[in-house]
Amino acid sequence: MKTVKVGICGLGTVGGGTLNVLQRNATEIARRIGTRIEVVHVAARSVNPQCDTTGITVTDNALEVVANPEVEVVVELIGGDSVAREVVMAAIDQGKHVVTANKALLAVHGNEIFARARDKGVMVGYEAAVAGGIPVIKAIREGLAGNRINWLAGIINGTGNFILTEMREHGRAFTDVLKEAQTLGYAEADPTFDVEGIDAAHKLTILASIAFGIPLQFDKAYTEGITGLTADDVQYAEVLGYRIKHLGVARRTAEGIELRVHPTLIPAERLIANVNGVMNAVMVNGDAVGSTLYYGAGAGMEPTASAVVADLVDIVRTMDCEPAERVAALAFQADALSDEPVLGIERCETAYYLRIQAKDHPGVLAEVASILSERGINIESIMQKDVEEQDGLIPIVLLTHRVQEARMRDAIVALEALESVMAPVVRIRVEQLD
Ligand SMILES: NC(=O)c1ccc[n+]([C@@H]2O[C@H](COP(=O)([O-])OP(=O)(O)OC[C@H]3O[C@@H](n4cnc5c(N)ncnc54)[C@H](O)[C@@H]3O)[C@@H](O)[C@H]2O)c1
Ligand SMILES: N[C@@H](CCO)C(=O)O
Ligand code: NA
Fold it and tell me: Which residues cross the membrane (predicted)?
């Protein structure tokens, strides 16, 4: 049986998981593809105690792995965009295929990386970069290839979802849960990427590119994290029949593409509203198929390794094909990408949840309603009596119909200028996802 030799750069959570899965399932994988995948060289700053590297060359210099003439496929699992970028570019330049889980690298430098890979006729697999073990890249790139995609929306950061779930279900403190996510290997090296929505925006950038056939444009993504959410808003949302989730949304409109990451109220009865812990889920709506949903572990050692190994299997299966016969790296032919603009957040349209802390005096509700109606903003529902007064202030909690962000910002400025409104208005976007 033929053997393809592989080098792994980075042997931490994902690299360690990848080596273990490749070793444990070696026979099963060979039964699938008729070829053995053998790891011959790994690079890491320290040896992972969860791995057996017997018979494998170990180095702390990742470029040595790339330069090893036996290595035909380089797996980059270091993270970041300095050494990792060097490793990926060097591998491509040497005509080696690449697998990476590095969404930060691809979202920012992917256009350049995929162009270079095309020139050299090599593949770059990145299933593990988005939604961990869920094969969502494959589903969109191949399974939905007959569709014009309308929109997608996903819980695409495991750490953030784990934190929100533990806070909601067990009343745990934010920093305490974040520490646990770090211990479990879910968090990024810099966890602000997780909690400020940057990691989700990296992944959303990649998903939007393969869904709509547009270049990667991370700099145009609107990013809002979960650090500003309060227990009060989580509770009021529930009373209104919603759950708050940190969502990445990419939507095609007549004017362009919406690309945004932010906390979002979702009707509690939606499946995606009930995705908890480190689990991720991505909804994709296509013109032919309608809405589809992909669910699974979004982070962690072996779930992520599952995606890395699937990419290796795909590469080994198609490495002898003509490059033109393979699936296009970003799902669409590189010369057929569209220049539909990514819209600024002020041009995006959603419904809103508003919480207005106001003095409890007659007329305040009428003032609020008139500010909204003057701007053509319709109120869907309003809640005032089920909540307790705090410091003589009464929270007015309401849901609006869909409206452009710019108009809502203008309304919020007017609301905050009211004499009876005593604090910044809290606004959280709402999506029905039906
Ligand atoms: N942890 C997850 O659940 C998860 C899921 C999906 C994607 N990812 C991505 O996978 C990548 C790796 O993440 P991780 O969680 O496994 O990280 P990690 O910190 O656990 O592992 C990083 C590995 O790289 C090695 N390394 C660091 N600098 C190096 C250098 N200069 N030369 C050689 N080796 C070096 C470290 O020794 C370690 O073995 C990142 O891009 C991350 O975003 C992680
Ligand atoms: N830090 C990321 C890892 C998976 O990409 C997360 O928590 O989702
Ligand atoms: Na994936």
Answer: none
